[in-house]
Design a protein that fits this description.
36% of the residues lie in helices and 22% in strands. The protein has 18 helices and 24 strands. Strands 3, 4, 8, 9, 10, 11 and 19 form a seven-stranded mixed sheet that branches. A five-stranded mixed sheet has the order 20-18-12-23-24. A five-stranded antiparallel sheet has the order 14-13-17-16-15. Strand 13 (240-247) and strand 14 (255-256) form a beta hairpin. Helix 1 (40-51) packs parallel to helix 13 and helix 4 crosses helix 13. The longest helix is centred in the last third of the chain and has 26 residues, at 495-520. It starts with a strand and ends in a 5-residue tail after the last helix. It binds flavin-adenine dinucleotide (FAD). Flavin-adenine dinucleotide (FAD) binds at residues 36-42, 59-62, 68-70, 72-77, 144, 167-168, 202-204, 214-215, 218-219, 222-223, 256, 357-358, 380-382, 394-397, 400.
Length: 576
């Protein structure tokens, strides 16, 4: 028997069991502010909106605070503490972003970061600060839970209602306004219309459109896809950050390798050359600002035939004795205990290659997280603009907290300004109909959601990865078209698989957007490196904006957003 509690969300009622895995969603949910995503951005937004005294419902397809990028994060923030000033933070971010950043967003983030991060202590987060940094800690490989778990506890205790295992698969609009969303309960298969006065998308990135990624399995990009379908503008979608040092040892899980460990050993090609050091780079020092260049140098070695199994080699002989990096030694011992116990590191090198890590691009927002669709706000990795062409390490978490809070506040104010709910269930009805059809289809070869997903991931890694060219991008586009045609045959045998179908549809949309933007940008800048246009071109000091126009995808160039008066002039960055 499920024990049921009646919970009021806005004016309506739904029932909820005491166990999250047994929750039963009823017909319609109504709330003032709907937050989509239970990572740092969503939780911070929900807390802020709740503090403005409105009803808040947070929907997440994974348990709130867990199984998202924030939970897996290293827990490091870049922020103006100690001798590091907001202006230096601004300068470092814009230089790192190869001048493509939205300077107004960077200005807000760097000015507010310190106060916002210290405020986290009020929510129970144990955050330590250092010179230019802050840090939270958690168990091995899950330092980010030092942030998400206290935030999720605080959100619940302050009255935020949290609904888990629900995939939001579409936004509802009335005229030009966003008025809700359509959720799919991946446990019981119910489609749930979610009516809201304001909606905040905080659904994270899309790392899982690649086969080589450190992102958790649910990072499939629905936020970008549903925002795009609802008419929101996306920006800089061609810029995808790869973390240079990922463990890609056959048979082991793929994960991000601590640069300190890489620094302690010797990263070599198959000729034994320490090619990064030869090019003047140090893995331990340069991984914050130069992820783009380090990843490119590694991939170039592999492409030139000086790699092994699409990777370069990390020689760790004698590293424990070196005692380099101290704090990372404990972590390394744990990695060895868990995954490398059968690997004789005195004889064998480890395979290292860049892993997809972060989407720099995303939904375009203003300083308050507002999108161009009235009532729709966004925060965190799903947004674009702060990072430009290459994100500075530690800025993603800072971004989630500063803009999470801002979006939460603005969304609450918007909700308060509306007297009544506008409602629509159009999207929910369409999804329900589509899923019924999918469920009734026969199992045709190659058309299961997992097969389509795998083919997409392999193509994206090969063709729209660290190094691209006209030829690889055309190949990727053709493959995406073919896979999109296969969607008409896609089938699902279980409720869980229906959820995977929804994910695959979004993955294809995001892949197409990223590929088309990468084709459009005919230069190399930051994380976007094109073999056929290998140089940065000042004529391309422009953002690419993507928007849906009818059934067409419209991509337009736009001037970058600068502060007035110019902060770049003040800190001495020549924007070119
Ligand atoms: C291994 C790793 C280490 C990192 N380390 C650092 C670091 O040390 N410092 C740093 O600054 N950055 C780091 N990053 C990047 C940073 O962690 C992320 O960019 C950031 O945490 C994203 O937060 P978010 O709240 O936007 O999204 P997430 O934390 O990914 O949360 C997204 C949420 O949305 C939910 N969701 C997604 N789609 C749907 C849907 N359709 N319906 C309902 N819910 C949905 C998910 O279930 C999840 O709850 C790291 C990333 C990784 C992968």
């Amino acid at each position: 028997m499920l024990s049921k509690a009646i919970i009021h969300a806005g004016q309506d009622i739904y029932e909820q069991s005491s166990k999250s895995s047994e929750r039963i969603a009823m017909r319609v949910l109504k709330t003032d502010v709907l937050v989509i995503g239970g990572g740092a951005a969503g939780l911070r937004a929900a807390i802020e909106a709740r503090q403005a005294n409105v009803d808040v419902l947070l929907v997440s397809k994974t348990p709130a605070g867990l199984a998202n990028c924030t939970a897996y994060a290293g827990g490091g923030f870049q922020a103006p503490f100690g001798k590091f000033t907001p202006k230096q933070h601004f300068e470092r971010t814009v230089k790192g972003g190869k001048s493509l950043n939205n300077q107004k967003l960077v200005d807000v983030m760097t000015r507010e970061a310190a106060a916002r991060l210290l405020e986290l202590r009020e929510f129970g987060v144990n955050i330590e600060t250092g010179d230019g940094t802050a840090r939270v800690k958690g168990p091995f490989a899950m330092n980010g839970t030092g942030l998400t778990l206290p935030l999720s506890r605080y959100a619940r205790s302050s009255g935020v209602i949290i609904l888990e295992n629900v995939i939001v698969a579409g936004l509802e609009k009335s005229g030009d306004c966003a008025v809700g969303a359509a959720g799919f309960n991946r446990l019981n298969g119910e489609v749930i219309p979610l009516h809201a006065k304001s909606i905040i998308l905080a659904s994270g990135g899309a790392g899982r459109i690649y086969s080589r990624t450190d992102n958790p399995v649910g990072t499939t990009g629905e936020g970008y896809a549903i925002a795009y379908s609802a008419g929101a503008k996306l920006i800089d979608m061609e810029f995808v950050q790869f973390f240079p040092f990922g463990l890609v040892e056959p048979g082991l899980p793929m994960f991000l390798f601590n640069p300190g460990i890489v620094e302690a050993g010797r990263l070599v090609n198959t000729e034994g050359k320490e090619f990064l050091k030869d090019a003047g780079f140090s893995p331990g020092r340069d991984f914050i600002e130069h992820r783009d260049t380090l990843s490119r140098l590694i991939c170039t070695e592999i492409q030139e035939g000086k790699g092994d199994r699409d990777a370069v080699l990390l020689d760790l002989k004698g590293t424990e004795e070196i005692g380099h990096g101290l704090t990372m030694l404990g972590e390394f011992k744990e990695i060895k205990r868990r995954w490398l116990s059968k690997v004789d590191l005195t004889k064998q090198c480890l395979h290292i290659a860049p892993l997809e890590h972060y989407f720099m691009g995303g939904i375009e927002i203003d300083e308050n997280g507002a999108t161009n669709v009235l009532g729709l706000y966004a925060a965190g990795e799903v947004t674009g603009g702060v990072d430009g062409a290459n994100r500075l390490g530690g800025n993603a978490l800072t971004n989630t907290i500063v803009f999470g809070a801002r979006a939460g506040r603005a969304a609450a104010e918007h909700a308060k300004s509306l007297e009544r709910f506008e409602t629509s269930d159009l999207s929910a009805r369409e999804i329900e109909k589509d899923l019924k059809e999918v469920r009734a289809r026969p199992q045709s070869p190659g058309a299961g959601p997992r097969e389509i997903r795998k083919r997409l991931q392999a193509t994206m890694t090969k063709c729209v990865g660290v190094i691209r060219s006209k030829e690889t991008l055309e190949k990727a586009y053709a493959c995406i078209q073919e896979l999109s045609r296969d969607l008409s045959r896609i089938y699902a045998t279980t409720t869980w698989e229906l959820g995977e179908v929804l994910e695959v549809e979004s993955m294809l949309t995001v892949a197409e957007i990223a590929t088309r933007c990468a084709s459009e940008r005919r230069e190399s800048r930051g994380a976007h490196y094109r073999l056929d246009h290998p140089n940065e071109d000042r004529n391309w000091l422009k953002n690419l904006l993507v928007e849906r126009s009818g059934t067409e995808m419209r991509i337009q160039m736009r001037e970058i957003v600068r502060t007035k008066p110019s902060l770049c002039d003040e800190v001495g960055i020549e924007v070119r």
